């Protein structure tokens, strides 16, 4: 019998790449997704063409009964909990929905794990937004970017400070996942991810910023820079994220109950201007941009300190932003017709 991995949100960008990876490794892959995200239906069609044992269940993590039924039927060995409401903007306009998906939905997943697959291992995709605005950390302004003045990155020991409905809902799921290892003895792990990008990403303006800018340039659409363009994030190509999943599951006795920063770290970070420079050289054209006001809660800099993952997992990112952005650009270029059909610019 092949081992089974269950991926909530498995038709999303990260999920699609995770499913493809584990199918190649011989796993039975069970995708649980409500297909609400832009591009999810297109990703599902692609996944159904891949070799291996693939099962799709159209379901919503807010439906605890369907989750329980799915866990009971397939008894997964591994779970990647990726399903989420992913934008700060949406969380402000509809905080109830944001709470029900990110907080209650994650609770439902953890309860299904506890009741039906208590020996399985689960990784929850969290976010750096659990740290809030981090206004106490000095930042310096340079020509093309902001940088931390006295540190290279934010470690897992930085105090949690949930900010906005999205930060609160994701932070709730984050802490429930940590606590279910402590209280119920489950193999649960948190990834506080930063700037994940790569193929099968149908970026929108509020989420998936690298793909959004790449789409906009290739389709010759004007873009708005909220702020001054010097804001910086560490970025991580999805293949490097998947290696972190593999290593975490392999070392679950060491990783259970912990939260890890999984991002590009200090060496793999980009400002908007630096991304523009890479993309304009790849595409041979210039951005048409204007400026808008800073978004509420937007951090001038967020860079992960990834030393804990390096020390405990032997993990570090390998794919540089220059190489990774080229991979994303090329995928979008090859799939321009598909992306246009999704109506990504109408969202």
Q: Using the CA coordinates, give the radius of gyration.
A: 19 Å
The biggest beta sheet is recorded as:
7 strands, parallel
* Tertiary shape: globular
- Portion in beta strands: 15-25%
Question: How many β-strand stretches?
Answer: 16
Fraction of residues in helix: 40-55%
Q: End-to-end span in angstroms? A: 43 Å
CATH top level label: Alpha Beta
Might you state the CATH topology name? Answer: Rossmann fold
> Residue-averaged pLDDT, rounded?
95
Number of helices: 13
As laid out across the biggest beta sheet, the strand order is: 3-2-1-4-5-8-13
Low-confidence stretches: none
Total domains: 1
Q: Return the string of H and E elements.
A: EHEHEHEHHEEEHEEHEEEHHEEHEEHHH
CATH-derived architecture: 3-Layer(aba) Sandwich
Going by CATH, the homologous superfamily would be NAD(P)-binding Rossmann-like Domain
Q: Which class do the helix and strand fractions yield?
A: alpha/beta
Write the layout of secondary structure elements.
Layout: E1 4-8, H1 13-24, E2 28-33, H2 40-48, E3 54-58, H3 64-74, E4 78-81, H4 88-93, H5 95-116, E5 121-127, E6 139-141, E7 146-148, H6 164-184, E8 187-193, E9 196-197, H7 209-218, E10 223-226, E11 232-234, E12 236-237, H8 238-250, H9 252-255, E13 259-262, E14 269-271, H10 272-283, E15 289-292, E16 301-302, H11 307-313, H12 321-334, H13 336-341
Parallel strand pairs: 1-2, 1-4, 2-3, 4-5, 5-8, 8-13, 9-12, 10-15, 11-16
Antiparallel strand pairs: 6-7, 11-14
